[in-house]
Specification:
The chain is of the alpha/beta class. It has eleven helices and 14 strands. A hairpin with a 2-residue loop joins strand 12 (258-261) and strand 13. The two termini are 34 Å apart. Bound molecules: adenosine-5'-diphosphate and magnesium ion (MG). One of its GO terms (molecular function) is ATP binding.
């Protein structure tokens, strides 16, 4: 069974903005699914519809085998959502926050305490029990927020940008927690993110969307094959040299399209070996000092940039 199936979904707000425009996607049970897209793509609109806050304008949505519009109340008991703003009460302790959440979901006291202790353990929160919640860092608050959302043992957990603004250590801890949720609790995770690296490292499936509809959906590996051809990278000692060489390439008009990132130029290698030889010869003829030249596999970033332009 699929966890979520979205078919030809449209959402038009009252002001006329069409935030979702014929969107279709599928989420498997037990996977981490990442929704990637530029600002305004419609990610939050979709989360708001899937979590039953907004009504779709048209289209069909199935959650855990049931029609979203016909089974709103049942679906609400099966899911949970950590929105971008955390829903922690600073005046309550960590334990009180967790217990409060368990009562909202009508989990009985004995079960709630058992679950809470196990979640505190799994989420590495026990060392924070003795401090007031108001003193927690943003990363720890977010961790507590997600732990709270797990008290009801949801079958699907929605996370809107769970690691935005986190330092590397907190982000890595959050990645481990998300994997734990999937692997130990068998919860399906539906997350939105701006970070390609995050989608690549965590997800079983990624869906890239733009202007309200999906561009492509697949495993990180299959998406990387999406660009089909490999990429030729030429490395330089600094950014200035990189730019100068890119200008010479444009003037010479020998390549269809080039990209610059850091101190490298990236070229679509339409015919791997031939492109490599042409470019290599040209660089030597023009006596352009480069540090490296190699054919590489596309990264998720290349795929993303290509698709979203
Ligand atoms: N409540 C709303 N009323 C009207 N327009 C909205 C509302 N929420 C979002 N939008 C518009 O819908 C589009 C998609 O927004 P959103 O779903 O927030 O995208 P994302 O989360 O990918 O940045 C944007 O153009 C945004 O301005
Ligand atoms: Mg958003």
């Amino acid at each position: 069974m699929l966890a979520i199936e979205v078919d030809k979904l449209f959402k038009q707000y009252k002001n006329g903005v069409r935030a979702l425009d014929n969107l279709s996607l599928k989420v498997n049970c037990g996977e981490i699914f990442s929704l990637l897209g530029p600002n305004g793509a419609g990610k939050s609109t979709l989360i708001n519809i899937l979590t039953t806050f907004y009504k779709p304008t048209s289209g069909n949505v199935t959650v855990l085998g049931k029609n979203l519009c016909k089974s709103i109340f049942w679906i609400r008991t099966q899911i949970s959502c950590a929105a971008q703003r955390v829903s922690i009460d600073d005046h309550l302790s960590l334990m009180e926050n967790m217990l409060f959440q368990s009562r909202l979901y009508k989990v009985d006291n004995v079960t709630a305490r058992k679950r809470i202790n196990s979640l505190i353990d799994s989420f590495g929160l026990s060392q924070y029990l003795k401090y007031p919640v108001a003193s927690y860092s943003g990363g720890i608050k977010r961790r507590l927020d997600i732990a709270m959302n797990m008290v009801s043992m949801p079958r699907i957990l929605f996370l809107d940008e769970p690691t935005v603004g986190m330092d590397i250590a907190s982000r890595n801890a959050m990645w481990k927690i998300m994997q734990k949720i999937r692997d130990e609790f068998k919860t399906t995770i539906f997350l939105t993110t701006h970070y390609l690296e995050e989608a690549d490292a965590l997800s079983n499936t990624i869906c890239i969307m733009k202007e309200g509809h999906e561009l492509v959906q697949g495993t990180p590996e299959s998406l990387k094959k999406y660009t089909k051809q490999n990429i030729l990278r030429i490395g330089f000692s600094d950014k200035k040299k990189t730019r100068e060489c890119a200008e010479m390439f444009s003037k010479a008009n020998i390549l269809p399209s080039i990209n610059i990132r850091e101190s490298s130029i990236f070229i679509d290698a339409l015919e791997n070996q031939k492109t490599f030889e042409t470019v290599n010869r040209w660089l030597l003829e023009k006596k352009i000092p480069f540090k490296a030249i190699e054919i590489i596999e596309p990264s998720l970033e290349d795929v993303f940039l290509k698709l979203t332009n």
